[in-house]
Amino acid sequence: MPSPVLIIAACDDWPTDRIVVELERRGVEVFRMDTADFPQRLTLVGRIDRASAWTGELVTEHRTVELSRIGAVYYRAPGRSASPRGCPARRRGSLPLRPAPAWAGCCPPWNAAG
Fold first, then answer.
1. How far apart are CA 99 and CA 109, in angstroms?
2. Where is the MvdD-like pre-ATP grasp domain (predicted)?
């Protein structure tokens, strides 16, 4: 089975909508997520394993993808993350508004040359 493409973009980003439609038309599995949904509607559970690098899952209300299966990542201006409910005010300032470095490191490397 071909590897899915992880798309990290704002949910209302219409250029990304067009890319998703085209990839799906070509039979590519797509897992689209917006960092604005993290951690309320998006869960990341993962760990680094010596044998297989990243293992774990990204989970939304409707979909799940295994991190080790991701073959490519498309990253385009995702939304801002919100503080979780109940997060103490003193900790809100330390939460990343755009956790790009964290998301960029969550997927296994792939050979861009194919």
1. 18
2. 5-76
The secondary structure element, H or E, covering residue 19 is: helix 14-25
Q: What is residue 10's three-state secondary structure? A: coil
Three-state SS at 23: helix
Question: What mean pLDDT is predicted for residues 14-19?
Answer: 96
Closest by Cα among 32, 51, 50, 40 to 103 = 32
| DSSP label of 25 | H
Look at residue 27 and tell me whether its pLDDT is greater than 90: yes
| Three-state secondary-structure class, residue 44 | strand
List the domain boundaries for the chain. Answer: 5-104
Element at 94 (helix H, strand E): none
Residue 17, helix vs strand vs coil: helix
- Give the three-class secondary structure for 102: helix
Q: What is the pLDDT of residues 34-70, one digit of tens each?
A: 988 888 889 888 888 777 677 899 999 999 999 989 9
